[in-house]
Amino acid sequence: MEIKLKKELLIHIYNNYRKTMLYIANDILHDYQKSEDVVQDCIVSFESKYELLANLSEKELSLYISRTAKNKAINYYRKNTKVITVDFSIDEIQLIDTEYDISLRLLEEEFILDAKDYLLKVSKQQAEVFMYRFYYDYNNRQIAELLEISHINVRVLISRARKNLKDFIEMRRAYEQKNIR
Fold first, then answer.
1. In the predicted model, is pLDDT for residue 40 greater than 90?
2. Residue closest to 8 by CA, chosen among 63, 42, 54
3. Are residues 72 and 99 in the same domain?
4. 69 shares a domain with 101
């Protein structure tokens, strides 16, 4: 009898929540086949949680299923994503981009020292984008593929990095001028 109830509950969950779980997983994984795998993993995990699921209201069940799908998708992503580390030494930075206007006003060595200090203060993602673009000379599409973000997001991060670096250097110069006098 309990096996039949368990089967009915799993069929109910699959029929009513499959699309929701698929949407949540696909939103994270961006791959339909992997999302299907996550949905199947969820259904399998629900089998062992029959006692809990049978006592939940429909709203609680919906929330539980959504949370489980999200967590399973994140775990799947982490398990199957290759780790990319930016291997660079702050002491070896020499920027490739010559179009940056602030570098025209500064000696290259001073600019590089400022860039090193700046990279230590920004987010990891902004530092990675900055290094890939100006140190390794990757284009926006290559960076986007490497970091698995959109090329538009890369462009925005580069634009922000340039503006923030310019502000950082100008603020440092103003502070140095103030302390010299």
1. yes
2. 54
3. no
4. no
